[in-house]
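User: Earlier you gave me the apo prediction for this protein. Now I'd like the version with adenosine-5'-triphosphate bound, so I can compare the two side by side. Same sequence as before, with the ligand SMILES added.
Assistant: Got it. Here's the input I'm using:
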Amino acid sequence: MSRHTTAPVLVADRVSVGYGRPPRHARAVLTGIDATLHAGELACLVGPNGAGKSTLLRSLARFQPLLAGDVRVDGVSIAGYTARDLARKIAVVLTDRVAAGQLRAYDVVALGRYPHTGWAGRLDRDDHAVVDRCLTDTGATHLADRPMSELSDGERQRIMIARALAQEPHALLLDEPSAFLDVRGRLELTTLLLSLTHDHGLAVLMSTHDLEHMMRHADQVWLVTGGGLRVGAPEDLGLDGSLQRALAGDAVFDPVTGAFQTGRRPTGRVRLIGDGATMHWTRRALDRAGYLAADDATIDVICVSGNGQPAWLLRGDGRQHTADSLAALVALLRRPD
Ligand SMILES: Nc1ncnc2c1ncn2[C@@H]1O[C@H](COP(=O)(O)OP(=O)(O)OP(=O)(O)O)[C@@H](O)[C@H]1O
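And here is the structure of the complex with adenosine-5'-triphosphate:
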């Protein structure tokens, strides 16, 4: 499928989710949700702790009943699917630990084929090929023979994603899939999800607290705010202040860098001169140390190169020093002479 496939796969129509029995004993966590997940789209579900992200994901996949409204997948209400047919449409990776006993990782991924196999659950050659492919795609081939009970959190997460992919669903819902992954694992997961969505047309909705990932890669953000949901491109939600209001608390969302920063006020100002990577990391070090880069500041910090090594010249207010590291530069700035 092409990168620009935009057919709606999952549509939430005036949905309320929560706990208890409607109407009298229900406690709604989120209400009035209208949202559409499209083929070929990576959507990130974000919001503060306890806002209702897991509850929404579980409800969209019919793991718990809706309090109101309807969810349609490929045009049909989820209430109208058999469990087996729904599993061909939606796969879910939750954070709950599964009791896999002494099952090997391969067997767990093979369980993902259940919507496609006969009642006996016997896998044919094509099914095994799918399982192998899903293990390869998730970088988990080397784990295939290991018992699930012996896997690390990150390794188990890969297997659970492989299992979900083995269902060959149209929509994949993941609850904080990167929570246990190391830096390399996170990058590989991002690459995998972008390939599944943009190259193969899968619709993916994942909850995350990794805002940098969201800002960089999400086609759409599902932002939980005020007991409801606001959907938009990450940049639009950054520009109109929605991310700041919903997520930042005391932190400040910098609409220029797309990053969240603490609400600490800068303690000094410098004029920063330089370019490239040295300039980038210098700005970060100064920012962390509480110095704002401003063109009208009376102290210059000049990024220079000495013998191919970065170095810095600090000049102004009657003093001039050089520093051979950013730590030294920050120490000089803080020195009260
Ligand atoms: N089984 C349950 N019964 C009743 N209330 C629940 C149940 N599970 C969660 N809740 C409540 O529903 C609300 C939303 O919880 P949920 O786990 O969906 O939030 P979340 O956005 O996923 O949070 P986090 O970012 O911390 O994972 C919370 O107030 C939580 O206490």
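For your comparison, keep in mind: The first helix runs from residue 53 to 60.
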